[in-house]
Each structure stands twice: as structure tokens, then as C-alpha cells.
């Protein structure tokens, strides 16, 4: 039995800057609101437009769902500790927040890799695209990413449950992020090794899928005879490449930061990027560069405007 199970953690958040609590609350609330509206909006837009019922938008819809869930796992608690004096979270609540957050990050990592393969299939075999990316295969890939994310997260969370928290219940973070939990622990555990192995394996595997897909894709694009086809192919991939660069860039940045007292503030702000900001950016990245999505938004706005009674 883990004797630490009854502990209540104190989340320091950004308490070292009391004068910034209200401005940060307003900024994060605005970003979270835009993120929720943007991601749920993308899901609705893809759902109602038959032209968007393709494999690419099937995965994009699930990416929006992941972003909505991920921002909702961490941001509400962040907003809470910015405005209340009691910045606490229970042991069970902390482990649940970590489990769901970790599951969603790993799932999104492989969802982006699956989307890279989808881009490869769309550009390299356009005539056989719908056959190659059949509804059954899309469903299997979708189920596989969620299952793998859950299994990896469960393994890491179980290793965290073996940690002991002797005299310190203070977490130098706004949420139950892995390095912050381990820093508060007073026990030696193989948890760090487990997390390092799983994280490295996932990052390498997803990156190799993306790299292989884009190598074949670029070779195909170079061989395209017409400039119009070349431009269309690059336009198709630009949004996905932007999303991948931001997502993996921030994660790799966190990998490179040493887990020390001097880097805690940097870790917090870097975590804000992929827990709060990236889920808000993805709907804009995909919608602003996509004519079908923009056309659906225009039609919805025009319908609302003209149907509104004068």
C-alpha cells in the first residue's frame, strides 16, 4: 500500500509573481476559450460538410478532439490556482491529471504521425487514396493510437504510484507534470528510467514514421511535372508540417532542459506552450490554409446573418 495516497499536493503555479496572477488568469482564460471554441468548431465543421468526409479530415477531427481534451485536463486547474489562495490538488486527482495528460500527448504524437502517412498516401497515390486509406484502416489507426497512448501512460503512472513523498508535498508547477512530481518525491525509483525509455521510444517511432512519409512524399513532389501540382502538393502538407514542427519542437525543448531549480520557470512556460497554446493554434493552422474549411465557415456565417430576423 502506498502511504502517500492520502497526501494533498500544493501547486505553486506562478505564485512567485503575485502581481501577474490576474493578468495571467485573463490571458489563459482567453486562450482556453479560443481553444475550446476553435476545436469544437472544427469538429462541427468537418461533421456538417460532406466534402470534408475524407480520411484526412477524419484524423483532423480526432486531432481537434485530442486538443480540446488536453487543454481541458490542465487549463481549468491552472485558472483555479491563479485566483484562489488554496492551491491544492489531491494525490488521486494529481495522478489522474497526469494519466490523462500523458495519454493525450502520446496519442496526439502518433495521430500526427498517422496524418503524415495519410499525406503521403494522398500525394503519392491520389487515384488509389480512398482505397489505401479505407474507413476500416482509418478506424484501426485511430483505435491503435488511443490504445497505445493509454498503455504507455498507464505504465508510467504505475511507476509514479511507487514514489514516496516524505516531508514535501509542494509541486513547483501549475499541474502534475512528470518532472515536477518526481522532484517532490523523496524516494529512489525506476520511474525515471521507465519514463525515459517510453518517452524516447515514442518520440523516435513517431518521428521515424513522419520522416519516412515525408521523404517519399518530397521525392514524389519533385517528380511532379507541373508547377500547379507542385504548389498544390506543398499547400496540402504545409499545415501538417507547421503543426508537427511546433508540437515536437516544444517537446524536444523540454527534453533538453535540465530538471533543476533554476530551470523550473522555463519548464512552466514551455509546458504552457504545449498544454494551453498549441491546442489553440491547431484549428487556426488547419483552417486558415484550407479552402474547404474556410468556405464552410463563410457559409455558416452567411446563413446565420441572413436567417437572423431584422
TrEMBL record:
The keyword Membrane applies. It is found in: Cell membrane. GO terms for molecular function: G protein-coupled receptor activity; olfactory receptor activity. It holds the Pfam family 7tm_4. Its main location: membrane. SUPFAM superfamilies: Family A G protein-coupled receptor-like (SSF81321). The chain crosses the membrane at residues 20-46, 95-117, 137-156, 206-225, 237-257, 263-288. It comes from the Eukaryota. One of its GO terms (cellular component) is plasma membrane. Residues 38-286 form the G-protein coupled receptors family 1 profile domain. It is a multi-pass membrane protein. Keywords: Cell membrane, G-protein coupled receptor, Glycoprotein, Membrane, Receptor, Transducer, Transmembrane, Transmembrane helix. Putative odorant or sperm cell receptor. Belongs to the G-protein coupled receptor 1 family. This is G-protein coupled receptors family 1 profile domain-containing protein. The lineage of its organism: Eukaryota, Metazoa, Chordata, Craniata, Vertebrata.
Amino acid at each position: 500500500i502506498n502511504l502517500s495516497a492520502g497526501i494533498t499536493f500544493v501547486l505553486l503555479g506562478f505564485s512567485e509573481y503575485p502581481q501577474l496572477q490576474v493578468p495571467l488568469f485573463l490571458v489563459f482564460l482567453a486562450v482556453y476559450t479560443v481553444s475550446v471554441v476553435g476545436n469544437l468548431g472544427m469538429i462541427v465543421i468537418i461533421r456538417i460538410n460532406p466534402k470534408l468526409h475524407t480520411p484526412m479530415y477524419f484524423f483532423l477531427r480526432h486531432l481537434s478532439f485530442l486538443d480540446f481534451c488536453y487543454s481541458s485536463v490542465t487549463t481549468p486547474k491552472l485558472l483555479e490556482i491563479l485566483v484562489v489562495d488554496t492551491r491544492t490538488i489531491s494525490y488521486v486527482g494529481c495522478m489522474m491529471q497526469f494519466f490523462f495528460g500523458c495519454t493525450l500527448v502520446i496519442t496526439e504524437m502518433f495521430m500526427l504521425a498517422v496524418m503524415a502517412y495519410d499525406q503521403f498516401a494522398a500525394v503519392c497515390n491520389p487515384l488509389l487514396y480512398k482505397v489505401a486509406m479505407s474507413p476500416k484502416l482509418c478506424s484501426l489507426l485511430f483505435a491503435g493510437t488511443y490504445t497505445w497512448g493509454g498503455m504507455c501512460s498507464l505504465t508510467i503512472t504505475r511507476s509514479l504510484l511507487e514514489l514516496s513523498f516524505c516531508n514535501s508535498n509542494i509541486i513547483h508547477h501549475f499541474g502534475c507534470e512528470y518532472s515536477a512530481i518526481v522532484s517532490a518525491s523523496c524516494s529512489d525509483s525506476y520511474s525515471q528510467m521507465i519514463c525515459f525509455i517510453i518517452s524516447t521510444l515514442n518520440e523516435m517511432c513517431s518521428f521515424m514514421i513522419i520522416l519516412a512519409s515525408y521523404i517519399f512524399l518530397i521525392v514524389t513532389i519533385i517528380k511532379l511535372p507541373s508547377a500547379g501540382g507542385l504548389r498544390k502538393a506543398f499547400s496540402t502538407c504545409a499545415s501538417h508540417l507547421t503543426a508537427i514542427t511546433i508540437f515536437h519542437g516544444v517537446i524536444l525543448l523540454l527534453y533538453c532542459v535540465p530538471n533543476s531549480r533554476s530551470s523550473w520557470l522555463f519548464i512552466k512556460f514551455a509546458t504552457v506552450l504545449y498544454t494551453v497554446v498549441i491546442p489553440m493554434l491547431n484549428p487556426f493552422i488547419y483552417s486558415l490554409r484550407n479552402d474547404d474549411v474556410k468556405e464552410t465557415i463563410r457559409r455558416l456565417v452567411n446563413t446565420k446573418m441572413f436567417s437572423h430576423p431584422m
